[in-house]
Amino acid sequence: MGEEVKFSRRSFVKGVAAVGATAGIGYGAYSLTGLKEVEPIDAPVPGVTPSATSTFYNACPRNCYDTCSLVTTVEEGVIKRVSGNPDNSYTRGKLCVKGNSYTRSVYSPDRILYPMRQKGRGTGNWERISWDEAFTEIAQNIIKIKENYGSTLPICLNKYSGNFEIMHYGIEGTLSSIGYTSRATGTPCWPAGIDAQTFDFGTIYNNDPEDLVNSKYLILWGVNPAWCSVHSMYLVEEAKRRGCKIVAIDPILTATASKANEYIQIKPSTDGALALGMAKYILDNKLYDSQWLESNAKGHEEFFAYLKDKVTVKWASEKTGVPVEVIEQLAKEYAQADPANIWIGYGMQRHTNGGASVRAIDALAAITGNIGKPGGGAQYAQLETWGFNYHAMVHDAPEGSQGDGNRAINMNNFGAEVLAAQEPPIKMLWIAARNPVAQDPETSVVLKAFESMDFVVTADMYMNETVRMSDIVLPVTTLFETPGVNVSYWHYWLNLNEQAIQSLGEAKSDVEIAMGLSAKMNQLAQGSCTYPTEGNLEEWVEKECNEGIFTQFGLKDFKDLKTKKSVKAKNNLIAWADGKFRTPSGKYELYSEEAVKFGNKALPEYIEELQTPAEYPFRCISPHWKLNLHSQFQNLDWVEAIHNKPFIEIHPKVAQKMGIKDGDSIKMYNDLGFIVVPAKITATISEDIVVVYEAWYKDKDFNVNFTTKAIPADMGAKATGMPGIAFHDNFVNITKA
Ligand SMILES: Nc1nc2c(c(=O)[nH]1)N[C@H]1C(S)=C(S)[C@@H](COP(=O)(O)OP(=O)(O)OC[C@H]3O[C@@H](n4cnc5c(=O)[nH]c(N)nc54)[C@H](O)[C@@H]3O)O[C@H]1N2
Ligand SMILES: Nc1nc2c(c(=O)[nH]1)N[C@H]1C(S)=C(S)[C@@H](COP(=O)(O)OP(=O)(O)OC[C@H]3O[C@@H](n4cnc5c(=O)[nH]c(N)nc54)[C@H](O)[C@@H]3O)O[C@H]1N2
Ligand SMILES: [Mo]
Q1: What 3-state DSSP class applies to 521?
Q2: CB atoms < 10 A from the CB of 228, how many?
Q3: Does residue 727's CB lie within 6 angstroms of at least one atom of ligand 1?
Q4: What is the Å distance from ligand 2's center to 162 Cα?
Q5: From which residue to which does any coiled coil extend (predicted)?
Q6: Cβ of 168 below 6 Å from ligand 1
Q7: What is the 3-state secondary structure (H, E, C) of 51-72?
Q8: Could you tell me which of 53, 93, 52 has the C-alpha nearest to residue 70?
Q9: Is the pTM of this model over 0.85?
Q10: Of ligand 2's atoms, which has the minimum distance to the CA of residue 631?
Q11: What is the percent of the chain with per-residue pLDDT over 90, rounded to a whole number?
Q12: Mean pLDDT of all residues belonging to the chain
């Protein structure tokens, strides 16, 4: 990246300063021209007796393993308490810090409650407008783009994981219903691992996490449930109580690792070498399950030949920094325990060889015959419970739409690809359930892309960095203000989401926004939008369900779900128990031709990790933070009261060498950008890394993604349309600021 991009970070700092100057950085950090104070809205839901205390069941829709079932107490139309559903054996009556702060998140003084227009993107000079004005301006812009370019391809949607409730796929539906558009495609989250497991097993499919308690040996491999899946931590601890040995493998001694029987500190991005070293030991000592391999696997001879030819435990030790004896002991214990289980995290696959690492770890489970049985497996994720109709999502382009489909824009290189798009260029962005300015790599480039647009619309609940770069913001409801239904990508529960309160201010759900826009588009240009213009949302939730869902969850019909609220899948809770893999051969594929088609090795071979360049001697790992969910929750004053400062973790020896003391202001930089944060000196990390947790802090000029480059991971294109991103291959240097 050249000078220009490097310094565009500064221009963003100016942008923030301008917001502060206009509004005074305080709650919300935006100015509302001519607005009176927001009154609390406490009108009850129609049909609910005012002043009565009512209980509603809600479903946490955040992008989180736990996807909890919530019990919401409402008094006189106001939420008083949100707690975990005790009848759900995964949620177990408890919530995480974020869940416990839901009451604040709904009534936060930060909530955006009205549609607003910004006079000058990034100025903070917002004015309240009516929904009619907002829809008119958006519709006119869409119609103008169609006139100028002959298609709607200059409009680009960026939507991801702000809300995973099934009706929120209506956001994709909104754009489909106006024509073919450009779409941010792929995911910054888990794609390399998905492809890896797709090559090996045919798809992602994990055992019911409640089955973790049946393990005798559990490796937590680059996963941090103590922060990122707190309800699973109960299961890990219960397994331990029943005699299971817990081993954590991570470059950071995480809160999870601190609860394990053994912690193994590994050099980042070398997990494949550790897994292959273990496999070699297992092969040499004949600890593999030849019977399982004979009946279930394809290519184990080729894999064993590769191990014999290329892998030694000593090599694995040199690569990973893990002593030979530790690798041997780990391999022996793992292979001899029955059943033995591995939970493969998403953090560990955010490397250029992340997919290959996941395949090597999967191979351990396969060669030891730990697949398809209780307490065993290679757990990553599952989509088995996601068989909805996607009724809110599927909408045809209007008749006469030009083009033959949507255009894919890589979500993992969003800024650069938006800027580079030609014939036609991208002119308008629609952002919903997404905060790309905070969460995408190369923030300075993302900001340039936003600056270059003719028109930006963002639908969100809070005034975040992306909203600040928009022309119009549309206020969306929280999960308590709209009905829905949710499942998890980890556990096997399905949770109903009931509307517990009326929407605050003028907030609308994403589907209601689509309906309103459709009405306006058709008013201005008949036939220009196929989205329904009205509909009962409760009925729409029912339309998402089908016989497959009812059978899977033991429900008679939708009414039955409305009575039961939270239900667990009845069968297929042990992945691959039937031995029918969904690969081309129907077997577990240690040798995958499909992998070759996507430019990868057929075998789970080691792919060299990126080496630290001399000028940027630290690898910056930027994992997820305990108190937020990406850019969500950290902005709440309740959460800020617990913790409101980003920091950089530095090993004591590095600190000593550089004369850095705890709390010193540190500049972390590379050729892309920099951040300035206080130092936290800690021996929980190794000397070759620094750690900065990714998060959005309200009114703080902090975003680690100013330094992360859009470096692709090795896999992801098959299942998600684009390769993943190597967030943790971020090489930096540090100096005292
Ligand atoms: N509190 C909270 N919960 C969350 C989230 C959140 O932001 N906050 N996010 C949700 C989402 S979207 C996701 S994807 C999941 C993520 O859930 P996790 O995968 O558990 O979390 P991460 O922080 O992404 O990464 C886990 C660990 O991977 C380690 N790691 C990084 N590189 C390597 C490596 O090369 N080898 C090994 N062995 N380990 C490595 C990191 O040090 C980190 O401790 O959590 C979900 N839950
Ligand atoms: N450096 C670094 N960067 C990372 C990662 C990392 O480990 N390191 N992790 C990556 C991962 S795993 C992920 S999943 C991504 C997450 O990236 P995003 O999907 O962008 O994540 P969020 O910040 O959870 O949500 C975005 C926005 O959705 C809004 N929202 C919530 N509910 C609704 C709704 O109902 N409607 C609408 N319209 N908006 C809503 C929230 O207020 C928030 O502003 O970040 C990635 N970025
Ligand atoms: Mo994620």
Answers
A1: helix
A2: 24
A3: no
A4: 5
A5: none
A6: no
A7: CCEEEEEEECCCCCCCCCEEEE
A8: 93
A9: yes
A10: 23
A11: 91
A12: 93
Asked whether the beta carbons of 60 and 67 are under 8 A apart, the reply is yes
Identify the CATH class of 116-186+393-479+505-553: alpha beta
- Ligand 1 close to Cβ of residue 351 (< 6 A): yes
Mean pLDDT of 544-560: 98
Write the Ramachandran bin of 461: left for phi over 0, alpha for psi from -120 to 50, otherwise beta: alpha
Distance 383 CA to ligand 3 centre (A): 15
Half-sphere exposure of 345 (CA within 13 A, CB side): 27
At 698, is the pLDDT very low, low, confident or very high (cuts 50, 70, 90)?
Answer: confident
Which atom of ligand 1 is nearest the CA belonging to 63?
12
Indicate if ligand 1 lies below 6 Å from the C-beta of 352: no
Residue 187 CA, ligand 3 centroid: distance in Å? 8
Please state the separation of Cα 65 from the chain's center in Å: 10
On whether the CB atoms of residues 408 and 418 are closer than 8 A, the answer is: no
Q: Which residues contact 301 (CB under 8 A, 6 or more apart)?
A: none
Sign of CA dihedral 252, 256, 258, 264: negative
Ligand 2 pocket member 703 (CB < 6 A): no
Q: Is 493 exposed, middle or buried (0-12, 13-18, 19+ CB in 10 A)?
A: buried
Q: Any idea which fold 6-15+610-736 has?
A: Barwin-like endoglucanases (2.40.40)
Task: Summarize the confidence of residues 583-589 as an average pLDDT.
Answer: 98
User: Which residue has 């607003």 as its token pair?
Assistant: 116
For residue 729, count other CB atoms closer than 10 A to its CB.
Answer: 23
**Of 465, 476, 489, 630, which is best to mutate to test ligand 2, by the most ligand atoms within 8 angstroms of its C-beta?**
630
Pocket test for ligand 1, best of 250, 440, 624 (most atoms within 8 A of CB): 624
Which pair of tokens denotes residue 376?
């065993």
Per-residue CA distances from 132 to 37, 138, 139, 155, 516 (Å): 22, 10, 10, 21, 9
Q: Is 266 in the pocket of ligand 1 (CB under 6 A)?
A: yes
Taking the CA atoms of residue 143, residue 452, residue 475 and residue 149 in that order, the dihedral angle to the nearest 10 degrees is 10
Ligand at minimal distance from the CA of 226 is 1
Q: Which fold has domain 207-379+576-597?
A: Dimethylsulfoxide Reductase; domain 2 (3.40.228)
The Cα–Cα gap between 26 and 24 comes to 6
- Measured from the alpha carbon of residue 66, the closest ligand is 1
Contacts of 619 (CB under 8 A, 6+ apart): 268, 269, 612, 688, 689, 690, 728, 729, 730, 731, 732
Q: Find the helix or strand (DSSP H, E) in which 184 lies.
A: strand 182-185
621 alpha carbon, distance to own chain's centre: 16
**Digit-coded pLDDT (tens) for 169-208:** 999 999 999 999 999 999 999 999 999 999 999 999 999 9
Using CA atoms, how far apart are residues 231 and 254, in angstroms rounded to an integer?
16
Q: Which helix (H) or strand (E) holds 567?
A: strand 566-568
- Provide the residue count of the chain: 737
How far apart CA 192 and CA 402 sit, in angstroms, is 34
- Structure token digits, residue 221: 């491999």
Q: Is the peptide bond before 613 cis (omega within 30 degrees of 0)?
A: no
Residue 701: per-residue pLDDT: 86
**Binding site membership of 381 for ligand 1 (Cβ less than 6 Å):** no
Strands (E), 76-181: 78-84, 116-118, 125-128, 155-159
